[in-house]
Specification:
alpha+beta; elongated; 162 residues
Length: 162
């Protein structure tokens, strides 16, 4: 399995043998690939034409592999950050490096996900303003009831003392 993992650049699909081998390598490395998305468009950056394969894992981390024309991987992105690869020619070891990088950054990634604020759509409203108003009315009514009970107590205590 130390051989070169080459992708068919022009005919890249999810049923491609190289994509299946890639998924198998990640499973052997101990991660679960939940979904594989292939970018249908050819992109171009820094004079290099490439296509992207996005792998989403069970912990929501995303690895994007950028495939250039000859069919080899020229760049790996983990959660939108480019990661350097020491073992570029041995894909099994390279996938092991990617999995190690995922493990190292897992807690920080999960923390970022937990702190992410989600904006509600403009049309979507919540019952919070009405509930707040109702709770304020209830609180004011309880304050009045407590005040009435204190007045009644103060009226009863002088009579009891006399």
């Amino acid at each position: 399995m130390a051989g070169k993992l080459l992708f068919s650049f022009d005919e890249l699909t999810q049923k491609d043998k190289s994509v299946k081998v890639l998924e198998k390598h990640f499973k052997r490395a101990g991660t679960n690939v939940v979904s594989i998305d292939l970018e249908p468009r050819i992109k171009r950056a820094s004079g290099i034409s490439y296509r992207e394969i996005s792998l989403t894992f069970s912990d929501s981390q995303v690895v994007k592999l950028r495939i250039k024309r000859p069919g080899d991987i020229y760049q790996v992105m983990l959660n939108r950050k480019v990661i350097p690869m020491a073992n570029q020619d041995d894909h099994a070891k390279a996938i092991g490096e990617i999995v190690q990088a995922m493990d190292r950054g897992r807690s920080a990634f999960q923390k970022r996900l937990a702190n992410a604020k989600v904006k509600l759509p403009k049309r979507m409203t919540t019952a919070a303003p009405r509930m707040e108003k109702q709770l304020e009315e209830k609180r004011n009514a309880l304050k009045e009831a407590v005040e009435d009970a204190r007045q009644q107590l103060s009226e009863l205590t002088p009579e009891a003392a006399a």
